[in-house]
Design goal:
alpha/beta; Rossmann fold; 5-stranded parallel sheet; 8 helices; 13 strands; 31% helix
């Protein structure tokens, strides 16, 4: 099975290829002066299975669709698509009358291609998987976070979801670590969690850090509840707000993100990046066994 990456996924793809001891399929993805994308494969994948790794931020969706078109016309045996990051995943409902339902439309667009399966690392709302017209699964980074805690000897006392949407992430890591977990709402600690953080080493678990507001606020709540220390895991490091990143260090000792997206130069000095390459390698090998 051949491994192919779009532009933003190349750093992660190279790590995956190195672990698998194979080469990436050569392709060119470029832009004309007016921003129009141009995509072309540089080698044949005819009658071979193809595994495409993508980090699809808002601006890279058109190049990705063109890449899929190029692969389809190369007549492969099967096409598997793995999103390290799925842009527009947060637009999982219409928030206003007349608003767009972005993830549903993109899922339908992907359905126009003969994709065998789609995989998404830590989709913002896993219930959105039902919108995809082909078999689709969400991959949890919990094993990657667990390995980091074990390898660094950073064993917390409790795991904390910063809001209701992150509860399943805290639960998944809790099951591996055999640690208790709690959750916060957007304003104050829930009653069942209050006073349970006194003197505790706390680890927040979320899917992404963009402005940093949610994690900073949650860390501040934990500090006010008496937490001894606070660190956080966030799968996707977007870091859209440069100013906000300077505040991260005020609330937590460390923020761990993965390489589903290229490391941001705007990240605070306390931010550390770890790789999800082993997770992608595990998936790739399982598909090789399948095909």
């Amino acid at each position: 099975m051949r491994l192919l990456c779009d532009t933003l996924a190349i750093p992660l793809g190279e790590r995956v290829a190195s672990l698998l001891r194979l080469s990436l399929v050569r392709c060119t993805i470029r832009s004309f002066p007016d921003g129009e994308a141009d995509v072309a494969l540089q080698e044949s994948v005819e009658d071979e299975s193809v595994f495409i790794l993508s980090s699809a931020v808002a601006s890279s969706w058109v190049p990705l669709l063109l890449l899929l078109d190029a692969v389809v016309h190369a007549r492969p045996r099967r096409i598997y698509l793995c999103f390290a990051y799925f842009g527009y995943g947060r637009q999982d409902r219409r928030t206003t009358n007349g608003g767009a339902y972005a993830i549903q439309r993109l899922a339908k667009l992907l359905g126009t291609f003969p994709l065998e399966r789609v995989y998404i690392i830590d989709l913002h709302n896993p219930s959105s998987l039902v919108l995809f017209p082909m078999p689709c699964a969400c991959l949890s980074p919990s094993k990657i976070f667990y390995s980091y805690l074990i390898d660094t000897g950073t064993i917390p006392d409790v795991l904390v979801a910063p809001d209701l949407g992150a509860i399943h992430r805290a639960q998944q890591l809790s099951a591996l670590c055999a640690l208790p977990w709690y959750f916060l709402d957007k304003k104050v600690a829930r009653r069942e969690g209050r006073q349970r953080f006194q003197g505790k080493k706390c680890v927040l678990v979320d899917d992404l850090v963009d402005s940093g507001h949610t994690l900073c606020h949650a860390a501040d709540v934990l500090r006010r509840e008496g937490a001894q220390s606070v660190m956080a895991f966030a799968t996707h490091g977007l870091f859209a707000n440069t100013a906000r990143q300077e505040e991260v260090g005020r609330f937590m000792e460390k923020l761990i993100v993965t390489d589903t997206l290229p490391f941001s130069p705007h990240a605070s000095s306390i931010v550390q990046q770890i790789t999800v390459a082993p997770l992608v390698v595990e998936l790739y090998k399982s598909l090789c066994d399948y095909v």
